[in-house]
Amino acid sequence: MSDLFQQESPLVQIEFSEPKGAAPRIEEKPFNGYLNLRGRSDHTGFIAGVLKVLGVEAPTEANTVIDAGDNRIYWFGPDEWLIVTKPGQQTRVRNDLLAAFAGVFSSVVDNSSGLTTIHVTGDNAAALIATDCPLDLHPREFKPGQCAQTRLAKAGMTISPLADGSGFELIIRRSFADYLLLWLQDAAIAFE
Amino acid sequence: MSQRFRTAQGGRVDREREIQFTFNGKSYTGLAGDTLCSALLANGVHMIGRSWKYHRPRGVMSAGSEEPNAIFQVEKGNRTIPNARGTQVELYDQLDASSVNCWPSLDLDLLSINSKFSRLMPAGFYYKTFMWPQSMWMKYEHFIRKASGLGESPRELDPDRYEHTHAHCDVLVGGGGVAGLSAALAAGRAGARVIIADEQSEFGGLTLASKARIDDGEASQWIENAVAELQQMPEVTLLPRSTVFGYHDYNFLTINQRLSDHLPLAERPASREKLWQVRAQQVVLATGAAERPLIFANNDRPGIMLASAASIYSNRYAVQPGSRAVVFTNNDSAYQSALDLKAAGVEVEAVVDARAGSDSELANTVRSAGIQVINGSVVIDTAGRKRLSSVQVMRLSAEGSSVSGETRALSCDLLAVSGGWSPVVHLNAQSGAKPVWDEANAMFRPGEPTQAQFSAGGANGTLDLAGCLQEGAAAGNQAAIACGFEASTQPARAEPIDSQAILPLWLLPSPYTPGRGPKAFVDMQNDVGAADIALAVREGFKSVEHVKRYTAMGFGTDQGKLGNINGMGILAASMGQSIAATGTTTYRPNYTPVSFGAFAGQNLGDRLFDPVRKTAMHAWHEENGALFEDVGQWKRPWYYPKDGEDLQQAIDRECLAVRDSVGILDASTLGKIEIRGKDSARFLEMIYTNNWMKLEVGKGRYGFMLGEDGMVMDDGVTIRLAEDHFFMHTTTGGAAGVLAWMERWLQTEWPEMEVFLTSVTDHWATAAVVGPKSRAVVSAVCDGIDFSAQAFPFMASKTGTIGDVECRVNRISFSGELAYEVNIPANHGRFMWEKLMQAGAAFNITPYGTETMHVLRAEKGYVIVGQDTDGSVTVDDLGLNWALSKTKDDFIGKRSLSRPDTVRKDRKQLVGLLTEDPQTVIPEGAQLVDDPKAPTPVPMIGHVSSSYYSACCGHSIAMALVKGGRDRMGDTVYASLAGGRVIEATITESVFYDKEGAKADV
Amino acid sequence: MFLIECPWCGLRDETEFSCAGEAHIARPLETEKLSDEEWADYLFMRSNPKGAHREQWLHAAGCRRYFNALRDTVTYKISATYKIGETPPSEGKK
Ligand SMILES: [Zn+2]
Question: Which residues from chain B sit within 8 angstroms of residue C66, using beta carbons?
């Protein structure tokens, strides 16, 4: 290996291939920025800080995700959010937030290398994930704009339906990513 | 045409498709649509196996999942299935089946001698035999294993896949007979999400074998239409060959779907079974009712089967289950079987009805058909060796308690028996309800639901077709309405049937002296007879649960589906009480056996059984020959053997390289938590045992966390990044637990504290660069940091860059050497690692793994939480009292440190051990004693927690927890090993190398 | 397999949660002033009732919030869940 590359996805050891038969497509959207945001959602300074930097208020409805320009904000808990930025934007957004929160009880932590995003798309996307995810993924119950932290197989994930209805976005932890992709690819054999 | 007993027409078999199969090595022909049992019967094969204990010849008893006798070994080699119920095995080309329980063959079974001595093997025989003397067990075991086994489990790797899925629905319908189909139609038409599962290959249940009419057409046509309509509904899922085998809390049900067992081996898809884990809003149980036999002497000969089974074989499978039949019943339904048999061309000798008279429309139809009805009589015994040849009939007294008069022999090769019907209440009972005894109809009905559930049709004790259709539709409507839908499906219509009351009979009266006559079997699979139950009662067993365990009734692969109810009736009679008072045994999942593969699913093997967590440098480690060790779910490099090196040689080389020059360790797996907020330091004061308020920004400190019981829970270095901002390291295995632990205190006990915690374990890749040359290596790689000893002292933390990427370097040492931990966002982890390797090349930088890390820290006496501690060790036990604050009023676990138990003088304390022979390494975990020659039990004084050969020290070193150890320096102790081996060692302090700490202070 | 209503996330499968034992056990203040018996009572003694039991759960795979549940130890029915700091429903009163 040369020293030319500077960054690597956690899925560097995974081979992605074209889906066979009716198996869903599984692909990575690497190198997004991920910021863990903590704050009290009833604190005016906190609300104002988020609004100033991201142009929207952090969602307070549980299990929802909103678009904020180039960024997306996922509800993670009553005082916790995940901000997903375009690749390379995380440091700027973090610094802007830290500046906006001066004196406000809050936390902005860069976790960009700790997470990665997977898209599972195709007719059997929900069925593939349902192999071992206890969440009800039926479109009556789980629509674009909703998100959920739950589990997939024996690891955690954040899942949300893609806006175009083609499938799901999964945000998974780096150290579990290789396991989860091998697991998903193995589960997909059932649809080939 | 070899199928001599195939009827000329009718049935749901495909006469165009002949299927070859093998039974006990002999070739036979059946038809598509057959089960293994129907095909065997079509060929006149009635004796299909021998019983478990007495090796008596046995035949097909039923046509469903309650079958106790017709269990087979299906296929050989890696796809073999033990104990498959032949009544549910669909015939396919080249199917290979053999009997279980026969040795050496079905016809010549040497163990059938057990049958001759059956009186010597009563209930509890095995218990009594093995109680005493214990030594005899070895002698019996060989014989028992051979005699009592059922099928053989596969010995080869299973080639098939097993799938899992979670599913959610509004209405789950368990059972796809007419009641279930009606329910699914009603709920489906209302728009509900419906799953309907049935264990058979075709939906329709018992009605598939019925000539009745529904909605002015044939019942089979109605079934076909219903299935077609359901298939058109996008929110309805039909699962044939799928058994709802478990009903758990909160309407969580498990279904096993068999995907390929019905196909010839060569045509099977990759997946064999699919386990459905269903969460249902509402459940409709339409599992039907099962006929039960009557209990009389020699009631187990081949040729004796349930009356309903006789109908099913005649009507559905187009098979004559005998040539000359007697029907024996205590209720009306068996009269239909007499008609069905006659229509199939079987000569029906008589209907023997225990009831004094029978005057229903059905009974009169039988009489009009010219079939003799013998009322007020019962079968008291049977004859025939490998096949029934005749039955003996006597008059039943008016009150039903005795028999009298002439014995009348009726010649027959088929006895179709009906003792009445039992609703299949298993799932209702599994769900938490208590089945209710219905005295008038002699059946347990489903109990009051404890979950959102309806029972309909046979499962609800409703036995007529019209009632099943009506209840099914009503349950489907109600279930859909309960889910918020509008539902108003009208039930399909069928002719009501008038019927006459059942005469409940459990153990039939007999002319034989009690306990002396031929056996009357209650549980055929486990060879439990009526007399065994009576014996259990005489020996003092009163509870149905105890009688079950003593006699083994209901313990077979069939779980007593056929016989348990009769057993309870006999038990109640033996104790002179009602069945209601006697109660049932507990109905537990699984309804029918489920393969291990179905439970395991795809979660198999090194990669998928449990998560494999990898660091950013994992591929590099693999490419460079690392062997890996599991640390929690992480794969960590264990050591990097070079050509021909064994573990010890590699460790020796790695250790010396670190001590002499520089080594590099992947430390990314340590837990990392950011702590932020103005109360962070105050929070750490409570979480850790030492002081944090005055820690300088840019400096780190080592701390212990205790449980509230005062025992060491975790340890690590926490760095102050700003006044209100800390960066905590936890142990690799403790990371998730420590985060949850700290969140718990913040959320539940100290919500007023302004502290936020965020896990960043996965964000950072960490390389520990360790050894005298480490400063030169990190200086060459990290820009923007002054690494001089003065500018960057021990326990300091600084940020810089590698390339364009920001990194954080902590001067921390777990080896006693000059050392730096370099952290970079993990996407750049391999980039950082390769930079460090390049810079270290000049110093022969040596990658090392967890084994060398362990040796290096043990040489310095550093403990590993979880290895040198086990949840019962305090900081004082470790001799590390300097880490306990003397000034703090409180911290978690502090109060426990003054409990009587934690201040005991004889607590185990951490010490070092040096072996007498420097080359001998004591095994970790070895128990220590003062005097290995002392009489047993030898008092244990402690155990070895860490032990290695240290190349740097030139001898083996060990750490041990020894009672009062710190006061015993210089004492000799002995590690007492298996096989009588003893290793002598001397107690020392636990620091073995560089006791002054000079090496890190450079 | 329970279906547990996280007060934040709603109904979720039991496998997303972990149970943290009996709820409403406040950590004593001024622990050094407690007798060994008082400390042991806090440390070890739990009510273990047959019937309604107030217990703490963590939505571990979800929002990572602790909350309280009123669960019947005989029927396993969870009659209520409520946030930390909220008053337990009356059945839980002993
Ligand atoms: Zn939650």
Answer: 743-744, 747-748
At B137, the pLDDT band (50, 70, 90 cuts) reads low
Q: How many CA atoms lie within 13 A of B946 on its CB side?
A: 28
Q: What is the pLDDT of residues A144-160, one digit of tens each?
A: 999 999 999 999 999 99
- Nearest CB to C43; choose among B251, B709, B894: B709
Can you give the pLDDT at residue C88? 83
Nearest by CB to residue A151, choosing from C8, C61, C63, is C61
**C-beta separation of B293 from B306 below 8 A:** yes
Burial level of C69, CB count in 10 A (0-12/13-18/19+)?
buried
Which pLDDT does position B126 carry in this prediction?
Answer: 61
Question: What end-to-end distance do the CA atoms of chain C give, in Å?
Answer: 28
- Over residues A37-43, mean pLDDT: 96
**What are the backbone dihedrals phi and psi of residue B531, each rounded to the nearest 5 degrees, phi first?**
-65, -30
Which of A188, A183, A156, A186 has its CA nearest to residue A25? A188
pLDDT at residue B133 greater than cutoff 60:
no
Domains plus CATH for chain B? 14-130+144-148 (3.10.20.440), 161-289+423-482 (3.50.50.60), 293-419 (3.50.50.60), 511-575 (1.10.10), 618-669+765-856 (3.30.1360.120), 671-762 (3.30.70.1400), 895-988 (2.40.30.110)
Residue of B nearest to C67 (CA): B748
Does the bond joining B269 to the residue before it have cis omega, within 30 degrees of 0?
A: no
Q: Which backbone phi and psi does B198 adopt, to 5 degrees?
A: -140, 145
Judged by CB atoms closer than 8 Å, whether chains meet at B248 and C39 is answered as no
Closest CA to B743 of C43, C20, A171, C11: C20
**B442's tokens:** 């002699």
Residues of A in contact with B674 (CB under 8 A): 107, 109
pTM comes to: 0.95
Which residue, among B168, B194, B252, B673, would best test binding to A if mutated, counting the most A CBs under 10 Å from its CB? Answer: B168
Residue C64 touches chain B, beta carbons under 8 Å: yes
Are B164 and A138 a contacting pair at CB < 8 A? no
Give C-chain residues touching A135 at CB under 8 angstroms.
Answer: 12-13
Domains and CATH numbers, chain A: 24-30+114-191 (3.30.1360.120), 33-112 (3.30.70.1520)
Q: Do A149 and C8 touch (CB under 8 A)?
A: no
How many pairs of residues across A and B have Cβ atoms under 8 Å apart? 149
| Contacts for B305 with CB less than 8 Å, ≥ 6 apart | B59, B60, B61, B62, B321, B414, B415, B416, B417
Q: What is the mean pLDDT of each run of 10 residues along chain C (94 residues)?
A: 97 97 95 96 96 97 98 95 90 45
**Does any CB of chain A come closer than 8 Å to the CB of residue B624?**
no
Size of interface A-C (CB pairs under 8 A): 38
Query: Mind listing the pLDDT tens digit for each residue in B765-818?
Result: 999 999 999 999 999 999 999 999 999 999 999 999 999 899 999 999 999 999
pLDDT(B841) > 50: yes
Q: What is the pLDDT of residue B462?
A: 97
Is B754 an 8 Å CB contact of chain A?
yes
Q: Are B243 and B254 in contact (CB under 8 A)?
A: no
**3-state secondary structure (DSSP) of residue B655:** helix
Is C39 in Cβ contact with B899 (below 8 Å)? yes
d(CA B148, CA B140) in angstroms, rounded, equals 12
What is the ipTM for the molecules in this complex? Answer: 0.97
**CA dist., res. B820 & res. B787, Å (int):** 10
Which amino acid does the sequence have at B224? E
Omega before residue B590 within 30° of 0, cis: yes
